[in-house]
Amino acid sequence: MRYIDEFRNEAAARALSKEIRAVTTKPWILMEICGGQTHTIVKFGIEELLPKELTLVHGPGCPVCVTPLEIIDKAIAIASRPEVVFTSFGDMLRVPGSSTDLLSVKAKGGNVRMVYSPLDAVKLAQQHPDKQVVFFGVGFETTAPANAMSVYQAKQLGLKNFSLLSSHVLVPPAMDALLSSHTNLVQGFLAAGHVCTVMGYEEYFSLAKKYRVPIVVTGFEPVDILQGVLMTVKQLESQRHEVENQYVRSVRQEGNVPAQQLIKKVFTTTDRKWRGIGEIPMSGYRLSDEYAEFDAEKRFDVQTVTVEESPLCIAGLVLQGLKKPHECSAFGNQCTPERPLGAPMVSSEGACAAYFHYRRVKQ
Questions:
Q1: pLDDT tens column, 128-179
Q2: What is the model's pLDDT at position 362?
Q3: What is the DSSP letter of 326?
Q4: Which of 57, 126, 245, 352 is deepest in the core (most CB within 10 A)?
Q5: Strand (E) positions, the chain?
Q6: Residue 123's domain spans which residues?
């Protein structure tokens, strides 16, 4: 299949591996931002194709993983109400809150439904005017246009029984926070291709200049990753710090302008707490004043919910690239996909899940 098979070609991958080895003369630490890239790296053994001087660390690019416990508990509180039909993508249903998860709420009789689009939730609101239909809007900029469209459409339809529980987070502020930290080890980034498909990559130029780090927009197949690594290492070895685009088949510098315009109409930026990391200024979306009536947190009065993280879970260190999943004492024993302590073990983009399924490292 075009754009799949050619980017999983073994000969091309090995040729890129050889070229990376040839140009690498110093130790470098690179971070891939997106959890989808993390899964490709671990599943296909990309690190084994790289020279020992290169270290890949996994960033906070799994939106499920960085959703704070408070938001999960707010979702559970709302979903437990008898008048609510709570809808979500499937990857959020097993993410643990402080004491339970959404699937358990469903098992106890809660009306929790998996949907494939936020517009499915809008249809449910039309079909069930006697119920309050809530969609759990989690994601980076990638999913923001569809979630914005659901709210925009609900307003156009005059629906009073639809609302959005928003936990949107933004990539550039997270990168800024990582780079400004005194614990930062990252010297170059593989930027998230899907985010840049929507938003473009103009925001990255100032980051590359400010912190003198190369940023390469990268796709998700093995050849994509290796090309991104090669482009990043070439910059590092020549002491350049530029923004480049490996994912040219999908990403343009300006991104998807109509999608951005819809996002700006429905959402506004806000400070957002990231699970295991803490609050990052202006790193998320909330509904704008024009659409505030569709804010599920306000509608169900759950703004004040606060909880503590598990002391055993080192998800925050993993998401900052400071630890690998197998370095967690709970990995594979107290924390498994069946009994997770944190979201990275159950998310389809979580680094811990990737290591558990594809790369079991002996303790």
A1: 999 999 999 999 999 999 999 999 999 999 999 999 999 999 999 999 999 9
A2: 45
A3: G
A4: 352
A5: 28-32, 54-58, 84-88, 112-114, 132-139, 162-169, 188-192, 215-218, 243-245, 267-274, 278-287
A6: 1-306
3-state secondary structure of 118: helix
* Residue at 6 is within a domain: yes
Are residues 143 and 86 located together in one domain of the fold?
yes
CATH number for the domain spanning 123: value is: 3.40.50.11740
The closest of 354, 21, 276, 317 to 184, measured between CA atoms, is 317
265, 283, 306 - which closes a domain:
306
The C-alpha atoms of residue 229 and residue 232 are separated, in whole angstroms, by: 5
Residue 122, burial from CB neighbour count under 10 angstroms (0-12, 13-18, 19+): buried
| Residue 11 pLDDT grade (very low, low, confident, very high; cuts 50, 70, 90) | very high
| The predicted structure's pLDDT at residue 95 | 86
Question: Are 197 and 343 within one domain?
Answer: no
Percent share of the chain, pLDDT over 90: 71
- Clarify whether residues 248 and 320 are in a common domain: no
Query: 13 is written with which tokens?
Result: 């991958």
Decide if 201 contacts 219 (C-beta within 8 A): no
Q: Is 300 within a domain?
A: yes
Considering its fold, how many domains does the chain have in total?
2
Whole-angstrom CA distances from 74 to 123, 278, 354 are: 23, 18, 27
